[in-house]
Structure formats: structure tokens, C-alpha cells
Fold:
Amino acid sequence: MAVEIGGIGHSVQRKEDARFIRGRGNYVDDVKLPGMVYLDIVRSPYAHARIVKIDTSKALAIPGVLAVITGKDLVPLKLEWMPTLMGDKQMVLPTDTVMYQAQEVAAVVATERYIAADGVAAVEVEYEPLPVVVDPIKALLPDAPVIREDRAQKNNQIWHWEAGDKAGTDKAFRESDVVVKQDIYIPRIVVASIETCGMVAQFDKIDGQLTVWMTTQAPHAIRTVIALVAGHLGLAEHKIRVISPDIGGGFGGKVPVYPGYVLTIGASVLTGLPVKWIEDRSENIQADSFARDYHITAELAAKKDGTMRALRVKTVADHGAFDAAANPSKFPAGLFGIVTGSYPFEKAFVEVDGVYTNKPPGGIAYRCSFRVTEAAFAIERLVDILALELKRDPADLRLQNFIPPQAFPFMSTLGWEYDSGNYAGALKLAMDKIGYAALRREQAEKRKRGELMGIGISSFTEIVGAGPSKHFDILGLKMFGSCEIRVHPTGKATVRLGVKSQGQGHETTFGQIVAEELGLPVADIEVEEGDTDTAPYGLGTYASRSTPVAGAATAVAARKIREKGKLIAAHLLEASPDDIEWKDYKYQVKGVPAKSKTMAEVAFAAYTNHPQGVEAGLEAVDYYDPPNLTFPFGSYICVVDIDKGTGEVKVRRFFAVDDCGTIINPMIVEGQIHGGLTMGLAPALFEEINYDKDGNIQGGTFMDYLLPTAMETPSWETAKTTTPSPHHPIGAKGVGESATVGAPAAIANAVVDALAHLGVRHIDIPITPWKVQRILKEKGVAE
Ligand code: CDP
Structure:
């Protein structure tokens, strides 16, 4: 019975793959409308410059070019600036100054994509270069040029955020036997999803209806933002329809509002024609929001016996020229407060300064719940450095310090209530599975022979499921989950959600939750997302929030249906509702299992034979406001070998034990972890975006920005423990980002472990062969 239903815990094949593997996905670029025209963007070659003149005449003379839009054209429409989701503002197009290389300067609308590109090449812009600030630490110095002259505050600090007990932390540091301190730079990286950003906008001048198809992870929020930004031009929220069709990877990069979106909508309103804008790969890498870019100084205080007592972290966060991340309003540094990790510190104090530089907007939460990757990396690196200092085995030191299972729910010193966890259980399982003791013996033998082998551990804790509305909002919009379920007369169901899958398999897993709760086969349940005309209002999918919030809303909405169904079942079975129980996916008369009705039978009766006093129909909506976030965790162990000739790091083995509470679909969760591990390997060893002193991007194409392929990716080994969330209706926690959060520290720790006997304590990621070889040369061991 259970297998047929395909409920929770079953590796049901992904429904959506039927179209994906046949090449029948429907992406924004697949949308083709009659009379559609194309938009392309002129971008700045300078990182900071005054615009002296823009000459559009040559572009406008090209046959097929319909319009060229500049910042000055947007001024009368009050559209030259737009609000960012972080409460800052961002230029749609500059009127006089550009602030980063590849910033949008003008837009060309043409009858064909290639003509639009020719138009872009023909727009002549005269610039007068200005001093460039690329280093956020220098940007904070009093004599640094002010990047955002539009602000009342005449320096480059965006905000200062802090949490914890400063005096108490300082005291704990003074009283501790051992203090370790490390500067850690987590470089700028780019999401690089397969599909770039894009939009098709269609404005109907007659009825004032705007329809947009776009690559957004949060369609409802976008609809509200459009109404807020362009309401004065007659675009009203009830006349705006935002459709997110299939999305080829979001990972946080498709949360912000990019100027290209505003320009595409503006161009459709201006021309009355449908307009398409699809970013090319270079634009995507060079101009869209970036992740990480955290300059961290972290200190950990401990007793001689290894008991960790206090943590002090100071961070400078490079947000580029506009603060356009999508962190919850109350937490400008996101959930960096999870930096105490899996350990019960007595005291901690954390401060973060957000800083403007002449770079594209940064700070997006790339496959991590708002800065959790940065936090996990800092604490897990620091624990290894403490282990080195104390000459302790890093596994042993962690096992000594973990928050014990009986301490949950656990209130961290920085104020987060961890819902559940068994950290030692996960680490011990990983150690057992990978054969930790034998690996340490092998390492000792190899070290005697001069071979470089390292073992690295990362025992991370995440914080996902934004969020309880009491704490979380974006631009004032509260963060909750939403689900609407309609059970049709023949026992088939349509489920609509306020989140939006970008490849995570929601059409399957949310169907499984309904299947489990209602006893309907998963094949009979259609899950729809991403259309603001049909889906209930929701804040979208990012930060592994779908399962914690929308998954919960789905279970609760289904339970509402089950409650109503009970009245109908009682009527059909001629019994009192009090005598009806839900058992084995059916309504049964208590103690008389033969007298039962299925949900499909009840659904038919809901429309054909409902009892007097009970409304016809069988549907429910739930807006779920979670009481808390969920705290998935895991322990990863990585084994590396280092080539003393080339400096190349080879990940020989990587064992990941994850715990995301109740698992809805084990196969999908495993897929999420495999993908996440690869996205964790990437910044650890390969990916990095740099800028030269003039603000020119280094690594702005895939020739230079090294994404791992199957060649570089090891064969991941995985296992799980299951510690359900006590407050989630089905006990599930999020998982989409766990592996990206946990993996980089395990890899970095393994590399440092391989070199620790040479006196190496830390290497900033990405740990490239060049960096390693330089260290090997310095230490006199290079071959
Ligand atoms: O918000 P997002 O969908 O990116 O992340 P998530 O909630 O962690 O879910 C990622 C995928 O894994 C979805 O298809 C979930 O339904 C599935 N999942 C699961 O099967 N069991 C869990 N405990 C958590 C997620």
C-alpha cells in the first residue's frame, strides 16, 4: 500500500524529469510571443567613472533598432533608481556616474537579438575615470573616496551589525588558557547556474495588464516590488502576473532584482510590444550579484584541556556598489550568528561591517542560508587550528566539545534556539564509515616516507527555514510558507505553493507529502508553483526554506482537508465523526476496519453527496508561520593527497553524513547532497573572482573561472542520521544547501592537515596548485 501511495520516505522518481530529460522544459528563453522584440544592454568598461556624454545617434540609425534607453530617459519616469531587497537603492541606469565594471549604462531595443547587439556596439559613451576602491578594508579608511555620493552618510560603510556579549566575551578570553586567532578570506564567487537570467515582458496597453516570464526564485515578491516601483506609472499589483517557468538553477543568484528586468518591463510599456532580454554568459558572470567576499578575523578561547569557551569574530563584508543581497531585514549579515556552530560556547561576540566598493553587488546567499557557509567555514577552520595548537586529534576535540543530544532544544549564546541535533552521532558514523583510525595510521606511515596526505573534518550546523515572521522579513514582506490544495471529485489533487523549484524536485516531494497525508497516490497529485495568478502568496525558494516552511504548510493544509473529509466519511459510513479514525491511508470506523472510505471516495462525495451543514468541495489553504527555524547538520571527512611536484590537491575520499530530520525523498536528498558537495569543492579548490587595482574583473569568463567538471569531482560517499525537527509537522529540516555549507572546511582542513607538520596553519581558499606549490617550495619539500 505504502509503495503505491509513494508517500514520505520513498525514492519516488522525479516527476519533472519526464520533461527535462526529453528537452521539453519550458525556460524563459523558450517563451516566444508574436511581435516580440529584443533588449540588450550597454555596460561600463570602467569600475568608477563620470559619464560625460552618451551618443545614441549611430545606434538609432541602424535599421531595426527601435529605441535606446539611457538613465536620463528614466528620470521623468522616476525609474532611474530602484529599491534593493536590502533596503538600499540601486541604479537602474546611471545618469552621471558608473560604479562598477559591467554596470548597465543604456539599453537597446531592436527587432532582432543580433540587431540589438549591433545597437549596443554603436552606442558611444564618453567616460571620465574616477578613483577606484576595490579593497573593502581600504574603503573603510577615512581618506577613501566616497563611492555612494547619493547617500547622506559620506563614507563607504553600509551598516554595522553585531551580536553577543562583548564585555563577557573579552572577559572569557582573558580568563582562558589558550587563544587561537586566524585571518580568513572567503573570496568572491559567482553562482554560474546553467541558465543565465532573463525576462519576457508583455504589457497590454488596452487593459493595463503586465505579464512577465522571468528567472526569479521569488515571483510574488517581484510582483510586489514591480507594483511598488512602477505603481505611479499605472502598474497595479492585481494587473501584474509574474510567471517563473522552469529555472535552470537559482542558488540565490535569481533572488535579486536586476536592472535588466526593470528595463525589459520599461521597454514593453514604452513600445507596447512584448520584449525579451536574455543575459549572455559573460554578463551573468561579470554583472550579476556575487557571493561570499568576507574578510574574517576569528579568535577562539579555550581551556588547556580543550574545552572551548569563547568566540570573537570581526568581519568586513564587501557588498560592492549597491547592497542588493536579499538578507532578512533584521539581519544585514544574514544568519552569520550561527558562527558558534556545533559547540556550546559560554560567550561569543560577532561584528560585521558591510562596505561599498567599486564592484558589482555582492552578498547574495549562494546556496546557503544567508552567510551560513562563511560562518561554518570560520568555526570549523578555527576548531582545527585549536586542535593543532593543543596537539589534539581534531575529531577527538570536536567530540569533547559538541552540544550533547540531551541539551536540545539548545539556546546558543548568540540567541538562536537549535531545534534538535546529535552531532557526535553524525561524526562517529562518518569516522566509522571512512575508517578514520586506519586513515590516521596510513597518514603517519606516509609522513615518515615524506608523502603528503591529509584528513579534514567539518562538523557543521546550519540554520534554515526563514522564517518565523516575528524575526524574518524581506523589504517588510513577512517570511512564511503557503500551500493550497484542491482535491477534485475523482480523487485527483492540485497543489499550489508559494515557493518555486529551480531543480530541487518540488513537483515530486510536495506531492509525496500530500500523498502521505491524504492517502492519494503521488501520481494523482499535480504540484504547481511560480505563477502569481494561481499560487498563494509566498516569499519563494532560497536558503533551503521550502521544506521547512512550504513543506510544513503542505502538511497542515492536507490535515485541514483530512479533518473536513472526516465529516464526509462519517456521513457516508453512517457513523459519528468521533468514531472515525484515519488509519492505513483510509477513514475507518474505529474497531471495524472493514467499514472504511478512501480519500477518493470522500472527495467524490464532497461534490455529489456532502452532508447537510458541511460546505461542498474539498480544498484548503495554509499560510504557515513556523515557530522556529530548523537546524540541519552533518559531519564530513575528506582525505586528500598532495602532489609534491605540481602542488595539486587530489580529493581521494570524501564521506558525508547528513541529518535533515525526516527525509521526504531519499533519492532527491542524495542528489541535493551530491550537487552541494560539488558546489562546496568548487570554492575550496577552484573558483574565485578577483579584481585588479582598476576594478577590472579577473576571471570573468569560463576560460578563467574554473568550475569543477566530472573530471575534477571525486566520487562522493554519503550516509545519514535522522534527528527529526520537533516543531515541523513532519519533522523535516531543509537540506538543499547543507553540503555546500559543510564541504569547503572539510577540504581546507584536509589540505592544512597534510601540511601541518611543516608548520602550515591556514591557507585561504581556493587552494590552487600554485598556492600549494609556493608553500612546498618555501618549506623546502617541493619536488
Ligand atoms: O528550498 P529548497 O527547495 O532549495 O531546499 P529544501 O527545502 O532543502 O529542499 C530541497 C529538495 O529536497 C526538495 O525537493 C525537498 O522536498 C527535498 N527534501 C526532502 O526530501 N527531505 C527533506 N528533509 C528536506 C528536503
Notes: Residues 31-130+197-278 form a domain with the Aldehyde Oxidoreductase; domain 3 fold (CATH 3.90.1170.50). The longest strand covers residues 178-189.
